[in-house]
Amino acid sequence: MSSRHLSPMRIAALVALLMVAARLGGCHYVQLLDLRVGIDFRLLQRGPQPGSDEVVVVAVDDDSIKSLGRWPWSPARMAKLLDRIAAGTPAAVGFDVVWSERSSPEEEAELARSIGAAGRVALGYFFDCIELRGSPVRCAESNRRPLELHSVHNERGDTRGLERLPAARDATVNLPALTQSAKEVGYFNFLYDADGFFRRGPLAIRHGEQTAIPLSLAMLRARDPKRPLGLTVDSGGAVNVTWGNRIVPVAEDGQLLINFRGGADAFRQVPAHEILAGKTDPAVFRDRFVLVGVTATAVTDVRNTVFDAQLPGVLLHANILDNVLRGEFLQQPYTLTLVLELAAIVLLVLLLGNAMRRLRGVSAALIAFGLAALYLAASQWLFLALGIVMSAAFPTLGVALTYFTISLYQFLVVEQQRRQFQRMLELYLSPAIARIMSEQPERILNVAEKRDLTVLFSDIRGFTTISEGMGPAVVPLLNDYLAAMSDVIYRYDGGVRYVGDAILAWWNAPLAQDDHAQRGCRVALGMIARLRELEGAWAERGWPPIRIGIGLNSGPMVFGSLGSTNHLSFEIVGDDANLGARLEGLTKQYGCTTIASEVTVSAARDLLAVRELDVVRVKGKEKPVRIFEILGPAEERPRWLALADQFERALAAYRAQRWTEAQALFEEILAARPEDGPAALFVKRCQAMALSPPPPDWDGVTVMESK
Q: 508, 451 in Cβ contact below 8 A?
């Protein structure tokens, strides 16, 4: 885990710098993603809403064409349609239609008279070729006629910003007589985004020295000519469009981000054929902005939008009128959104990097998902409450990139280090614990802690004699023995160290194990059983049998990594650890295999068949310790019951200084079990005590003068 390698925080900082640079530089592919996620997804999440009841669409729909014939209709029919609409005294009428071709002069004159009589009529036209910031966006072939445009007022008089507006070369316009009769004219061009979706409406297009307005704004001005309509620009481009006191936010190129209300059914539509047939009460148009346009599918005047992939073009004008009339806009104020997005990128990425210093896998993924979700929720609130459109792609992509980059680094680099560390830990710990600890190295490196542990010390009896007799051949024997004993220890998730032929095993460190005493006792039994299994195979290879002594103790001990900065070793230290080693040494004196302290036996008594051996005061400790021999597992208690009972009676007589009675009881045990080491030891003690008895206040404790 060397600091020379990249850390999660350093990786997060690099990702943050990368995403900040991408946001400032304008990464094309991320911006495309932002169109779908940052705008479309948020509108879809908000859901459709009813359009303003101040806007009505007179639809030349499929039924109208079926009833009255193919489109375009004659000027005379359109004049009649306008007359019926005008009878309802609408606020303004806008035609998403252009009459550029000559027809009957009489019919043209009739339509011109109807337009003039209606008064507040705005005619539509379209530009044939538009350039946005020097790049051609859309060109079309059409008739070229003199253009009469109504321009918006440049409030600040700064012409440099006008260069950011879309520029038109030519236009297809209405016949002069119709244009002269109209109150206003406005283009009905819309520019699609790079992915082919229509999301914006240009509220100003440059044409020569003039700045033209769209049909929607033309209708507003036709309704109230005295209400000022202005364009505010600075050196960076358009700032906003103003309609009286109403401020309409636009981008630098003068385009309004349309707050779509829904699909084709968001606004009230009145079929044109019903109006011409007299089936519609003209009162439905009173004081309303009426848009006349084609919605018939056969005409294919449709646009690909978020709520409807085939939205009739006239409804884009309806949405813009709705936004302006209600004052409910979507906006992306450049400085504000830039600062907020950059701050979000840096904050989210660094928070995730800090979290992944400690977490990985599913936990880290949940943190990453939570941070991204938190940002999306906050930005959605800004969208719904204030109409501010924040980037969804850049911050969330930063979170995703940070997660995957750090995860990949952890897998390729840190995982390699962890495996190396795990292999080192497996020299001391079971593979299962080593794997866990390698994932949490701070729990073992440079850590010292005092905790109740169980230690097991084991030693081979007469190993010096064995090694001298076998020479170098003793190494395979010792390796075979240590491997077998280690397998037993690892089976119960113990730690292990070797010192020559001696074994130190421990439990409850570094991971907590509440049943540490039971694990230690099970291992002691398992080691003896495994040793018996090995003796047959060793005999076939000419290896001598091995006898071992085992000492077990439980109590408070200090564990941790001890040593220098260049070499660390995992150690267990303390009086209770030393006692475990002393108990292993006592097995030689008592002539038995396993001795455990009273603390250890009490914690694991249900698992064991034991007999009390003595109360001893080992060298270096003032407090006496009651010690037990582990005879076998609990299921063997019936086998050892008689021995344990008689040994207990003999010990009681011995402690009562009834030496003759005690010696007789111990000799009975020897008669039944001549190899019983503890009984043989106490026979000698009884004889010695009878010759040189202790003082009357003797407490029955055996003092051990040697280690």
A: yes
Domain map of the chain by residue range?
A: 8-32+333-423, 53-151+165-224+253-326, 429-638
Place of tokens 């054929």: 273
What residue type is assigned to position 419 of the chain? Answer: R
**Does residue 104 sit in helix, strand or coil?**
coil
Distance (Å, whole) CA 470 – CA 545: 12
Q: Tokens representing 198?
A: 């229509």
Which ranges of 492-606 does DSSP label H, i.e. alpha helix? 516-540, 575-590, 598-604
Task: Burial-class residue 27 by CB neighbours within 10 Å (0-12, 13-18, 19+).
Answer: middle
**Cβ pair 627, 614 in contact under 8 A:** yes
As a whole number, mean pLDDT of residues 599-605 equals: 96
CATH code, 429-638: 3.30.70.1230
CA dist list (Å): 699 to 611, 659, 689, 690, 694: 20, 15, 14, 16, 10
Written in H, E and C, the secondary structure of 445-472 is CCCEEEEEEEEEEEEECCHHHHHHHHHH
pLDDT at residue 146 in the model: 30
Would you state the structure tokens that stand for residue 535, as one six-digit string?
Answer: 């003796």
Compute how many other C-beta atoms are within 10 angstroms of the C-beta atom of residue 30.
16
Look up residue 120 and give its two tokens. Answer: 């507040």
**Distance set, CA 688 to CA 64, 284, 588, 655, 682 (Å):** 128, 126, 19, 14, 10
Name the 3-class secondary structure at 384.
helix
What are 280-317's pLDDT values in tens digits? Answer: 999 999 999 999 999 998 787 889 999 999 999 999 99
Closest CA to 560 of 552, 548, 572, 549: 572
For the entire predicted model, the pTM comes to 0.61
Q: Report which listed range, 41-45, 409-413, 516-520, is most confident.
A: 516-520
Separation of alpha carbons 307 and 311, rounded Å: 8
Give the C-alpha separation, 404 to 451, whole Å. 39
> What residue type is assigned to position 673 of the chain?
R
* Beta-carbon contacts of residue 54 (< 8 Å; ≥ 6 apart): 91, 287, 288, 289, 321, 322, 325
Categorize the per-residue pLDDT at 139 as very low, low, confident or very high, splitting at 50, 70 and 90. very low
Residue 557: count other Cβ atoms within 10 Å of its Cβ: 26
How far apart, in whole angstroms, are the C-alpha atoms of residue 359 and residue 501?
41
Distance, in Å, from the CA atom of 560 to the CA atom of 498, rounded to the nearest integer, reads 17
CA–CA gap between residue 217 and residue 152 (Å, rounded): 10
- Both structure tokens of 161: 């910003």
Three-state DSSP class for residue 5 = coil
- Residue corresponding to tokens 């039924």: 63
Q: What angle separates helix 334-355 from helix 8-25, to the nearest 10 degrees?
A: 160
**Residue appearing with tokens 């501010």:** 388
The answer to whether 185 and 260 have CB atoms below 8 angstroms apart is: no
Tokens 């001598």: give the residue.
544
Cα separation, 211 vs 204, whole angstroms: 6
Spacing of C-alpha 139 from chain mean position: 47
pLDDT above 70 (res 572): yes
Give the C-alpha separation, 382 to 81, whole Å. 44
**Contact status, residue 151 vs residue 254, Cβ threshold 8 Å:** no
**C-alpha to C-alpha distance for 636 and 511, rounded to whole angstroms:** 32
What DSSP assignment string belongs to 389-425?
A: ---SHHHHHHHHHHHHHHHHHIIIIIHHHHHHHHHHH
Rounded CA-CA distance 256/243 in Å is 14
Q: Could you tell me the two tokens for 477?
A: 């024997």
Cα dihedral 664, 668, 674, 678, rounded to 10, equals: -60
Q: Which helix (H) or strand (E) holds 257?
A: strand 255-257
